[in-house]
Design brief:
Number of strands: 2
Radius of gyration: 13 Å
Distance between the termini: 8 Å
Shape: globular
Order of helices and strands: EHEH
Strand content: 5-15%
Largest sheet: 2 strands, parallel
Structural class: alpha+beta
Length: 72
């Protein structure tokens, strides 16, 4: 059984990312990026994660979520 949390780093986005994410996942944790580099965004998000396994898909849709399935 997979469970987990959704952390959206970069919550200061000016498009509808935050609103749409809230509609799809009301339990999303929104964090605002510290610093200005892309690595700062990743580190900010990772620091807020509580799980033992962290998955960071590419925002460009190039990651296939099905590839994450692991038989238990």
């Amino acid at each position: 059984m997979w469970g987990g949390e959704l952390v959206l780093a970069g919550g200061d986005s000016v498009d509808d990312t935050v609103a749409m994410t809230h509609l799809l996942r009301p339990d999303v944790k929104i964090v605002t990026q510290k610093g200005h580099r892309s690595v700062d965004l990743v580190l900010t998000g990772f620091q807020k994660c509580r799980g033992e396994i962290i998955v960071m898909p590419g925002a460009d849709g190039s990651s296939d979520g099905a590839s994450l399935a692991v038989p238990l």
